[in-house]
Amino acid sequence: MNHIAIMKKSWGLTRKILSGQKTCEERWYKTKRPPFDLVKPGDDIYFKDSGEPVSIKAKITKVLQFDNLTPAKSAEIASRYAMADLGTSEIPSAIKDYTSHKNYCVIVFFDNVERIEPFNVDKIGFGAMAAWLCVNDINTIKL
After folding, report:
1. Is 118 helix (H, G, I), strand (E, B) or coil?
2. 71: Cβ–Cβ under 8 A, 6 or more apart, which residues?
3. Is residue 79 over pLDDT 90?
4. Which parts of the sequence belong to the ASCH domain (predicted)?
5. Which pTM was predicted?
6. Number of neighbouring beta carbons within 10 Å of residue 31
7. How many other C-beta atoms are found inside a 10 Å radius of the C-beta of residue 128?
8. Which of 112, 104, 106, 105 is nearest to 42 (CA)?
9. Cα 31 to the chain's mean position, in Å?
10. What's the gap between Cα 11 and its chain centre?
């Protein structure tokens, strides 16, 4: 399966992916949604900043999933993986606030990061606000 993780551009995380500072991607949700139960080691993951084309590809090496989260459990998870996810040991208060009331967390580890020829994607059918896309073949949504 192929996955596209759409990143918040202002956080500058795609730069950290390319530099090797960021080695995993965390996704936090109130309800189960992709990539929960859909992502596995060996899958390809593509990254793009919001409003930009896809420009990075990596290979998924490990996946951790958590459910029935409490604010304390969320804080523990966020703290444990902050360096790999954010490239820093300090978690900004905005992220602490965001994660504290979520019920699900998926952490996707990756390696073999490479810059690729940029391409745009067709998000029709995924929802305008979708920030993670799962497809069997990336070529089916390339524009």
Report:
1. strand
2. 100, 101
3. no
4. 13-75
5. 0.92
6. 8
7. 6
8. 112
9. 16
10. 13
* Closest to 59 (Cα-Cα) out of 138, 133, 3: 3
| DSSP notation for 12-80 | THHHHHHHTS--EEEEEESS--TTTTT--TT-EEEEEETTS-EEEEEEEEEEEEE-S--HHHHHHHHHH
CA nearest to 34, candidates 142, 131, 140, 119: 131
Q: What is the tens place of the pLDDT at every residue in 44-58?
A: 999 999 999 999 999
CB atoms under 10 Å from CB of 101, counted, come to 12
CATH class of 2-134: mainly beta
- Per the CB < 8 A criterion, the answer to whether 134 and 109 are in contact is no
Output phi, psi for 9, to 5 deg: -55, -40
